[in-house]
Design brief:
308 residues; Rossmann fold
């Protein structure tokens, strides 16, 4: 009987997000594919260093020990590497004891067509075109910032802490479009007038719902292995529509921060985020100094109108 991937949370991750492959990527960009392939084959037995997403992925995999009935999480390598160049990756996976056994290795072809085939709930990659394709296909995805990393740590994550921006991430981009086109006053007025109308779903709405279902397995919310936060530039009175939208979806976040223009970096540091998703680099770049951060691109055709 085939294994049913509709039951667990499925995370697709590129090898460059899981491991530190910045030097290898530099070789590929500066010297070309052939030298990259040869380098990887020459170093097959050299274990890769941990990448930005490594602690998060290891923590997610450890959730499987909390359930005797079924696996809660599956992680699948989604890589443009070839089978030949992937041997180093799988040897590194085995070295660190990561419970990952599945992969899609496309030899340079786009990985996005295989995301739905693997029932992927979340896709993390350092390669923007693959993330853009995933977003266009309706899959929660983010471009992980690998250049600026938080301090390396070997400590185990006891409680996974995930932070989300609101508009254009959890929610649709309609309100963001009004803000950019007509300004803050028009945005505040619109949100006040539509406080009882649920916002549309953004690219991470379904992922939040899946996390909420996982959290519901643990009666003591404070001790649940996953904790979520909404970290948004919204402020009163626009906060009401966001809260009511989450209520309408029958999900809740554990913490919410309505910042009204205050920097997100310090809030994320105090929350202890293990990953942060936002649609604007003005937020993710400084946030990446204290927490792994990922840019969520707009779906093609949905980019907010910046013309005044």
């Amino acid at each position: 009987m085939a294994y049913d991937l509709t039951q667990p949370l499925v995370i697709g991750i590129s090898s460059r997000a899981l491991f530190d492959l910045e030097e290898e990527n530099r070789i590929f960009e500066e010297r070309g594919l052939n030298e990259y392939v040869q380098y990887q084959m020459d170093n097959e037995n050299v274990i890769l260093k941990r990448g930005v997403a490594f602690p998060l992925i290891r923590a997610f995999l450890r959730l499987n020990a909390l359930s005797k009935e079924r696996r809660l999480v599956e992680v699948i390598i989604m890589s443009r590497n070839s089978p030949d160049t992937s041997l180093r990756i799988f040897r590194s996976i085995a070295h660190y004891g990561l419970d990952i056994s599945r992969a899609a290795l496309t030899s340079g072809a786009p990985v996005s067509p295989y995301l739905k085939a693997f029932q992927t709930d979340l896709f993390l990659s350092a390669y923007p075109p693959d993330v853009q394709d995933a977003i266009d296909a309706g899959i929660a995805a983010g471009v992980l910032l690998t250049g600026s990393k938080p301090p390396a740590t070997d400590h185990e994550i006891g409680q996974i802490r995930i932070a989300f921006d609101g508009d254009a991430v959890l929610f649709g981009a309609e309100a963001e479009r009004i803000f950019r086109h007509d300004g803050i006053e028009a945005f505040q007025t619109h949100e006040r007038e539509h406080a009882n109308d649920p916002l549309s779903k953004g690219p991470f709405a379904n992922f939040l719902m899946t996390l909420s279902n996982l959290q519901a397995m643990f009666p003591d919310r404070e001790q649940a292995p996953i904790r979520t936060a909404l970290v948004t530039s919204r402020s009163a009175p626009a906060h009401e529509r966001a809260i009511k939208t989450l209520r309408y979806w029958h999900v809740r976040v554990d913490e919410a921060f309505f910042l009204g223009g205050v920097r997100k970096r310090e809030i994320l540091e105090q929350f202890g985020a293990h990953i942060f998703f936002d649609d604007q680099r003005v937020h993710t770049d400084p946030a990446s100094e204290v927490a792994p951060s990922a840019i969520v691109p707009y779906r093609r055709g949905d980019e907010p109108d910046t013309q005044s």
